[in-house]
Amino acid sequence: MEFLPASCRSWLAILRIATVFLALIALADLAADPALAAGEPVHGRRAALVIGNSGYANLPKLPNAVNDAERIGAVLRDANFEVTIGKDVDKAGLERTVREFLQTLNDGDVALFYYSGHAVQVADQNFIIPVDASLSSSYDLEVQSYNVNSLLDYMRATSGLQILVLDACRDNPFRNQYYYLGDKKIDVAGKKGLASLTPKQGSLIVYSTAPNDVAYDGGGDLSPFAGAFAEKALSPNKEVREVLTMVRTAVMDKTGGRQVPWDVSSLTSQFYFVSAQEVLVLGESVTEVRVGADATRVALNIQPPIASSGMTLTATFEKAPRAGILLLDDKTVQPGTPIAADRIDDIVYATDAGQKPVELLPYTIKSDTGQSANGAVAIVFDASVPATAEKPVVVASNDDSASITKAITPVKLTVSSDVGTGFTPVPTLELGAGRPTGWLRVEQRDPSAQVAVGGELLVLGDLVKAEDLPKVRIRPAIHRSDAEAAIVLKSVVTAPEAKPVVITVDAEVNACDRLAAEPLDIQAVTEGVLPNDIAIDEALAACGEAVADFPEIPRFKFQYGRVLYAKGDFPGALKMVREALDGGHVRAGHFLGRLYQLGAAVELDPKKAIPLFEAAARRGDPYGQYSLGRALLDGKGVKANVRRGIELLNKAAESGHTYALNQLGAEYRYGNRVPRDIERAYVMFETSTNRGDIWGEVNLGMMYRDGVFVKEDAARAYRMFDEANRKLHPYAGTLMALMDRKAGKTDQAALLKLFRESAVRGDGWGAFYAAEIVSAEPSLAADPDEALRLYGLAVARKAGKASDDARARLAAMPRERLVTELQKTLVRLGAAGVDVDGKLGPKARAAAADVLGSKPPSDPVDLFAEIVRHEWVQSTPRLDML
């Protein structure tokens, strides 16, 4: 006989029907829109750079620094940072690691830098010291270190909140009493620790010890600071400044008060390494327990609540049973008295034998964070249940209550994604038999992939509703290992249909990135290729497809523009480059700025280049810094500013742009705009050469050729020029030919070959010397007018005396011959309606204006030189070499 009143049966039935109905509505909505929120921005994106330097070659070794970095990197990955890690990095490795970090940082919300290793302060600035540094020369600091201030500026340009953590205040590693920094000679005697930086708005700077003091490496596997930071950073729902207070206390305890961590903040918002979810739901809204009619002790069998990790939960029964009491460990559970929620399954309903009414026992689960959930237990005394049954029959309000007796086959999904293209939705799930149900917890997350639901990032332990699976999106790390990444979502409640979900992340570098990225591009995802190394046909197809597939990703448009330029499709290239610039790709702006400087594919207008270079330089783009620095030195398109120009060149060199080292070396060697310093020039050129830069080889070769600072060694100089020439250096061929002449070689054909090679690459001197040879020996000319074109290129390339002499040669020629060659060049460039008659009339001038896209020069020599320069640009020379 069933003692459940009709009203109670109806209430339970309605509750069950409503629960199922609401779930079906949710699933139907998601099935109708499987890409729901696919384009929604993800909040709280985080990127971290972690560097640990232990194995110094020339400075005291630091046993724990690499251990510190590995441990902190693991902690930050658990806090959902995309971590770029560098261990025992030399200067080139440091540059590359910083660049990789900046590539992950684009448009992020939070940027963090942690450094453990040697660092020094000079002139109130702090410098990271890579493991190959010696600091033995007064000139070493600027070529062997990396300025922390620069990195903070770059972080600030691409993120809303910046955190610097410097565990780098070990013993003073200086080998010298003073160092050169920019235009200053800095005395560093007696300096120790790091200088206190003043953070700009939105920054937090953390030191492992007080400014101007020294930190300890520690006797264990981690430094005292790293150990404390790793222990405290993942404390849930602790604001970062509270975390740092905990770290400070722990470090002081470990060091007996000898080391006191320090921080300086200008934060305007709160930041949490771990913001714990605050989800609280019941696995069963109503539990129906059926027992024999004479049962006297009934286990309630309430499923534990489903809650986010870290919550403290309590359970409270609102009223006492009508015909009995509730016991926990044989103690009566009083109405309104909270008990630990994890004990709710141990509660027993005790009553006397005999016929009893149905008991409906409402209860409430509350969390220490303010959430609550209501449930109820219905105890039904049923004569049809055998009196000998030890275990009550439990009927849940959903279908997930029966126990699993066999292994569960997980739902397996694969997300295919190109790195650097944002978050990718998981494939649409079949919402039928065997679908995941209930709640899932993030059980495993490979650190090389981030997972988000809608616009929120998830960390290990976070909860996801099964019906929200279509909102799950995956983002692979930009710089990741080849190991397959996996994300596992495991059912919170074991039930027949509660299947885990295993998401495999199949991420690859897009072919356009491999084939057409530009070197040192901080918004690329690969190291890049030089212009002459672009496989044009393959890259055209790959980048065209990438632009079509990812129209919102500006770097693909820039890379496509590079390929189109290399092909000679200037209108198409400009369209792509400008669209990339509009999308925020700063290297595209630099590319366009160089075209304005050189008048290549656009009108010659150096002023238009300056704001493009400025924007790139602010973001930490070394190409932008180098080009802006040179423009400021030369006053090209902007008022000359030597001091700022040198500062920008130093920043570019610091980031690995060897051209900047060479420009700095040239400034110090010749002393035209800064005090002459031959030794400093030598250090710059040698550093560049050791990095494999052909400009460094040429500049260092000239010092050996001339016996400047080093013993004269013509053979060594010639070998260096030859190596650079084979690598397409624009001036090396000319330098070789001039050395051959000086050595008495008279083979004009051999000399012409070298001068021509340089001329084709844009060397005005090479063009002038080649023109002189073919003028003197017409039999060596490629055609009767080659000398004119070479003289014209020499004028156009503005090569000082070579250009002046070339202009004089052209001015002395018969005007008709010059104009005839001008007209022939216009015809080769596709100009229509040009008569090759040697007369510079309106038709020829109109054709020249059409070709140049601007008003042509009035002087015939200038006009001829400009048209020759335009034809030279059409041959797509290496503009980055000039």
Short description:
By secondary structure, the chain is α+β, with helices and mostly antiparallel strands. It contains 27 helices and 32 strands.
Describe this structure in words.
Pfam families: Peptidase_C14, Sel1. One of its GO terms (molecular function) is cysteine-type endopeptidase activity. InterPro entries: Caspase-like_dom_sf, Caspase-related_regulators, Pept_C14_caspase, Pept_C14_p20, Sel1-like, TPR-like_helical_dom_sf. It comes from Kumtagia ephedrae. This protein has 27 helices and 32 strands. It has 882 residues and is an alpha+beta fold. It folds into 7 domains: 216 residues, Rossmann fold; 113 residues, Immunoglobulin-like; 86 residues, no CATH class; 77 residues, Serine Threonine Protein Phosphatase 5, Tetratricopeptide repeat, CATH 1.25.40.10; 54 residues, Tetratricopeptide repeat domain (Serine Threonine Protein Phosphatase 5, Tetratricopeptide repeat, Alpha Horseshoe); 70 residues, Serine Threonine Protein Phosphatase 5, Tetratricopeptide repeat, CATH 1.25.40; 109 residues, no CATH class. It has a 6-stranded mixed β-sheet, with helices on both faces. A 6-stranded mixed β-sheet has the order 19-16-21-22-13-23, with no helix packed on it. It has a 5-stranded mixed β-sheet with strand order 24-32-31-26-29, with no helix packed on it. The N terminus is likely disordered.
